[in-house]
């Protein structure tokens, strides 16, 4: 595996040979990078399923600078690629100066309550609204079209614990925002097939729209709140505000009703 | 020839120039961004912490003129803003917010990855914890290097069409080094390197 740096419990200053070795590794990484970039299995930043870790992989497109080995120039402005952290002293190797904290690498930080809430929400999927209309797929101007969505449901996460705190989040649906292609409005419920609580009457046909149809979307808005139990909680609970989830665009043909007014 | 940091020719008075210099210095310390995103530090219900600090940056002051403690504080705030935008980009399959907090080569790399994820019809949601600190900076202070032990508490892929959870689970922790570069008055994440577990 390509690594531009190394770390460990103790980080002695780099002897020159080690710095050269590290530089060689970085150069090798830069040379091999195009081949690695072609691997489709690593198409997202979380990597393989058994060791999920979500942050970008080592930057691959940095132009290697002459002499420095870590790329991106150097001099007083320093390299673009973050240098190996161990053993840095003033003006050494990467033309950088020490930051605070010495050479010890940071350790994992314990999750805060809100990070646990975030984990709970990450673990529990929010359903995507599914759009329904009546008439289905094709309707007419000046005809009331009933609208409703599936998945207008309360979402409750599983409890997530760390240390002496257990959090749980709950999301309650409050409204559906409908984008009908020619207008937008909000319904306070999921709607139903009879159209009593949510409906729309088109004023214009979809003949002049791309593909001869409107693309309609429904966005369910959930109010999200959380609770926490345990001595480590940063608080007993709170509201997190609203979380909208939109449907896929759904095609709907709207035609003119042809009437025979002749005698 | 050396570029001047603040133009005074169009200001009309020394006092106006002074105001602009002060604003520029405040902006440099605060790490002003170019977007209108908020910086209230509140938890957003879409699963992320809003830690971005942002306001229009009319001019820049040399980062070498900023006191070191303030410089590092600002850079770490901007680093967290970058991590926040990174998470949001995947959560919404929309990389447009990254440009305020990241620059090339990292910006292009992450943007391409988000777009590749979107093209697959999946949404990637994850939760990370952070413990960053500055470990080095360039001599002119235009680049500050941050090291972090990032732990992925959980990561899951969801169907963008149905919202169904496809795969994922708990994650691991790794050391990650990131370069924050001073770019026209704004600190942005420019490059990164992934190391061993921590």
Q: Let me know the average pLDDT of chain B.
A: 76
Q: How would a crystallographer describe the biggest sheet of chain A?
A: 8 strands, mixed
Structural class of chain B: alpha+beta
Total number of helices of chain A? 2
- What structural class do you assign from the helix and strand content of chain A? alpha+beta
Q: Using a beta-carbon cutoff below 8 angstroms, give the protein chain pair with the largest interface and the number of residues from each chain.
A: A-B, 72 and 84 residues
List unreliable stretches of 5+ residues of chain B. Answer: 1-58
Question: How would you characterize the overall build of this protein?
Answer:
The complex is a heterodimer of chains A (263) and B (198). Chain A has 263 residues and is an alpha+beta fold. Chain A has two helices and twelve strands. Chain A has helices at 16-37, 113-123, and strands at 96-98, 130-134, 138-140, 144-150, 155-156, 160-161, 166-179, 184-187, 199-201, 214-229, 237-246, 250-255. Chain B has 198 residues and is of the alpha+beta class. Chain B has helices at residues 14-30, 68-92, 106-119; strands spanning 43-44, 48-49, 122-129, 133-138, 143-159, 165-170, 173-183, 186-197. In chain B, strands 3, 4, 5, 6, 7 and 8 form a six-stranded antiparallel sheet that branches. In chain B, strands 1-2 form a two-stranded antiparallel ribbon. In chain B, a hairpin with a 3-residue loop joins strand 1 and strand 2. The relative contact order of chain B is 0.15. The interface between A and B is large, with 72 and 84 residues. Strand 1 (96-98) of chain A pairs antiparallel with strand 4 of chain B.
């Amino acid at each position: 595996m390509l690594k531009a740096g190394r770390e460990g419990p103790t980080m002695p200053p780099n002897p020159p040979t080690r710095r050269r070795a590290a530089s060689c590794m970085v150069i090798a990484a830069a040379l091999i990078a195009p081949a690695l970039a072609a691997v489709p299995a690593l198409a997202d930043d979380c990597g393989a399923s058994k060791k999920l870790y979500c942050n970008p992989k080592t930057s691959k497109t940095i132009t290697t600078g002459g002499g420095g080995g870590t790329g991106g120039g150097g001099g007083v402005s320093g390299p673009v690629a973050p240098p190996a952290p161990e053993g840095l002293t003033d003006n050494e190797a990467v033309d950088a100066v020490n930051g605070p904290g010495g050479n010890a690498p940071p350790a994992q930080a314990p999750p805060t309550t809100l990070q646990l809430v975030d984990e709970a929400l990450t673990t529990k999927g929010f359903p995507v609204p599914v759009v329904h209309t009546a008439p289905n797929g094709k309707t007419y101007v000046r005809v009331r079209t009933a609208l409703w969505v599936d998945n207008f449901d309360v979402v409750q996460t599983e409890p997530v614990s760390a240390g002496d705190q257990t959090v749980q989040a709950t999301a309650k649906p409050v409204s559906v925002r409908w984008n009908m292609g020619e207008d937008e409005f909000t319904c306070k419920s999921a709607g139903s097939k009879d159209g009593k609580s949510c409906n729309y009457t088109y004023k214009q046909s979809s003949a002049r729209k791309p593909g001869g149809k409107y693309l309609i979307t429904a966005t369910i808005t959930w109010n999200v709140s959380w609770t926490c139990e345990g001595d480590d909680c940063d608080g007993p609970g709170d509201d997190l505000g609203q979380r909208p989830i939109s449907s896929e665009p759904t095609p709907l043909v709207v035609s003119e009703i042809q009437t025979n007014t002749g005698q | 020839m050396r570029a001047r940091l603040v133009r005074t020719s169009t200001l009309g008075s020394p006092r106006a120039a002074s105001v602009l210099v002060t604003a520029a210095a405040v902006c440099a310390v605060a790490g002003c961004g170019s977007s209108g995103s908020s910086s209230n530090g509140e938890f957003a219900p879409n699963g992320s912490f809003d830690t971005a600090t942002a306001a229009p940056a009319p001019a820049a002051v040399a980062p070498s003129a900023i006191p070191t403690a303030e410089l590092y504080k600002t850079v770490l705030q901007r680093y967290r803003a970058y991590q926040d935008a990174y998470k949001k980009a995947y959560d919404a399959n929309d990389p447009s917010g990254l440009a305020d907090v990241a620059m090339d080569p990292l910006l292009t790399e992450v943007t391409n990855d988000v777009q590749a994820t979107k093209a697959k019809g999946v949404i990637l949601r994850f939760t990370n914890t952070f413990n960053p600190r500055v470990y080095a900076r360039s001599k002119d202070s235009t680049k500050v290097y941050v090291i972090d032990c990032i732990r992925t508490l959980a990561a899951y892929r969801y169907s963008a069409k149905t919202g169904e959870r496809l795969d994922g689970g708990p994650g691991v922790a790794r050391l990650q080094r990131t370069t924050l570069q001073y770019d026209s008055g704004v600190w942005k994440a420019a490059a990164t390197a992934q190391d061993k577990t921590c």
